[in-house]
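User: quick one, fold this
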Amino acid sequence: MHISWLMAFAVCFGSILLLRPVASNWGLVDSPNNRKQHIGEIPLIGGIAVYLSVLITVGTFVDRSDTINFILISISLMVLVGALDDKYDISAKLRLVAQILIASILVFAAGIEIHSFGNLFGYGEISTGSMSKVITILAIVAGINAFNMTDGIDGLAASLSLLSLAFLYVLVGERSVQVFIGIVSAALLMFLMFNLELFSKKRKIFLGDSGSMMMGLLVSWLLIESSQGKSVTIPPGHVLWFVAVPLIDMVAVMYRRLRKGQSPLVADREHLHHVFMDVGLNSKQALALISVIAILFSSFGLLLVLMKVSELFGLIIFVLVFLIYNVLLTNRRKFRKIFK
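Assistant:
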């Protein structure tokens, strides 16, 4: 264990203790409504505490490069936007514009780009060409929203982030990036202890949009860095498996909203965690089951990478999983008795 992980753990703990008492004064609390079933007002400071821990610990232990500097700038802006959303509930369109601008910093300033979709058909790399910057921005924004949409029950967004980070830690080759991943993971573990009430029910906190969007941004960056350029450790065709649950859920939910004639950005109770709870599971059971599914998907992705399986094969299986998910979702009422 790197000493930086212990520092991240401790700094996050201290940040939570400092921020929690002032959350109400700042308007950073979550109140129950027709979509939110928790009891009482819960402080939305988990993401800010994780951010402070990452900022301080990365600044202390990780060698600063232009990329790291721009990553820290980007997550700082993302946390600010998320905190404003937590406080004022800003419109989805305004939030989307902010996400695009922040993603553009990584693309145009840090030089993070998706240059290739991989060798999907066995005839060489499929280049993104002149569309690389646009495609990268869209991919980052998709990642931000995919993780943000999972933040509907205790521990889910943080757990899915942790699982993605754990598998990426195994696959990335650069030591400084591994240290970075360890720092973020340690901070998330401390947050989960409060969020899942391992300390006390009276000290419960939520991640908030600031945290879930920050994690979406970080995981998106790590996936792009690992699958592009000269030091590719994950073939581009296999990266989807390491964010399979949030990605499939987001696309499926948006598809169903569009079919109903609704905005794809409108909030509802159609996400995977809502579905599992509708068929009879409680929030902790839903968290455990979704986490197991995420582990299985990521493990399959890891197997594809290690065995150097065709990227086309991995993509075909991924599409089949998505189609099966949609079929099961359509018929979820039939499974209510099974779960009960």
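User: anything notable?
Assistant: The radius of gyration is 19 Å.
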